[in-house]
Amino acid sequence: MKIERMARKNILKIASYIPGKSIEEVQKEYGAKQWVKLASNENVLGPSPKAIEAVRKELSKIHLYPEGPCSILRQAISQKLSLPEKRVVISNGADNLILMIACAFVNEGDEVIMADPTFSVYANVTQIMGGKPVRVKLKECTHDLEGMLKRVNRKTKLVFVCNPNNPTGTTVSRDSFHSFLSELPDRVIVILDEAYGEFVEDPYNPDGLDYVGKKQVILLRTFSKVYGLAGLRIGYALGREDLIHCLYQVRDPFPVHRLAQAAAVAALNDEKHAIRSIQMVYEGRRYLYQELDRIGLSYVPSQANFIFINFERDSEEVFRGLLAEGIIIRPGKTWGYPTFGRVTIGRRVDNYRFIKAVKKIIR
Ligand SMILES: *Cc1c(COP(=O)(O)O)cnc(C)c1O
Question: Element (H or E) spanning 73, and its range?
Fold first, then answer.
């Protein structure tokens, strides 16, 4: 029998997620001696040393199943954020939580509103469930919340707001988000993805926590970015008890392994490492703006740990030129911006190397 008739109707048409290139993938082809990956917005400082120590201690227990609900971490998060534990659900990365949200809420034919461009996983999970992604173009590189509101109809189930947005690094204002929420029918759930929330400097940014429990908002956060644990896969969602309960209904019994749980508890308690990482991003942002201004390249001012830069030429060429210098970035073609590239902010040496290489390539 043809596979098209065996698989669920929609899944063979889904465009697969294109991840940033790993160092292992490119180092054979390109001869650079030193590599830095600025392609996936990981913490270039690495994990907290306390997280590494916690993993080491946990290693001898990996023959035992992990604790299913991640109670210790859930307690730590709920205390830190002053939220009841029932409003917290933890899983193996925000990506997996996004899939769980689709599993819990999207029926065949439902519509899911999202920005264009934004994080591609939102559209993927919608299609997996047989829903229809409704894409609303960014306005001045920012979510067009009014435009998104206009697309709401009886079929609308979810609205994704990525704040700061990946790949542009832009945020919505507190006022615009507030009026957006107040005009939205309360049967439509808003997913506020704050994967990069810790890096925001803009004081007019909405704080998702203000809405948890009060509105139909599910907040997404992750240990992959500022906490430097992308390789362990762990993130969490916050929201009203009835919404979070639905996510528990579709959750795997043991989605988060022991090492990730132990590392996340340690990372959450290592404020110093988090602050150092945020400080590095603040400094790096200013340095990169200054240097890009000097070179004469435009960029979207960012509230995240990456910058969306217009190289004003095919960015695949810039991408390959940078690979020859041992630097991996993410070219913008996947988002429909073929002259742009998304570059993670690194340490001072990384940013310096990047700028030096860009100058050489575009000259
Ligand atoms: C990185 C990222 C995530 C995924 O986080 P994981 O916890 O690593 O799955 C979610 N949303 C956005 C916008 C991201 O950029």
Answer: helix 71-81
